[in-house]
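Much of what follows relies on a compact textual record of a protein's fold. With that in mind, consider the following protein and its fold in token form.
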Amino acid sequence: SLSQPETEKMFHRGPGLNLTSGQYTAPITGYYTFTTTLHIVHREPQRKRQVCRGTRLRVLICVQSCCQHNRNLETSSRLESRGDLFTITVTGVLYLQAGQYASVFVENAAGSPLTVQSGSDFSAILLGV
């Protein structure tokens, strides 16, 4: 079945995605391919212009909120300019037991606000059991 969430221009198919919690729960045990694409604006405070330049941002897709080695997908990006929109993508395959969930985490070490823009996405597709 295809559901139309309340947010315009978004859709999801199947029962696994919870839009309130941001978690995808595996309906059956198997290998899933996950992808997230985040459109992010880095807003650096005026007084910290030079101090925070070049800070790294990590985006992870983790199983059961445990972001340990071999239980997550991750990428990192260097924040070079302030106020600019940039895109960061994480994709890969994770094995989930039925009932386990995966979700997206953003680790912001910049010390200044980041805003995730509309048009960002998170998807999961069952590859096989």
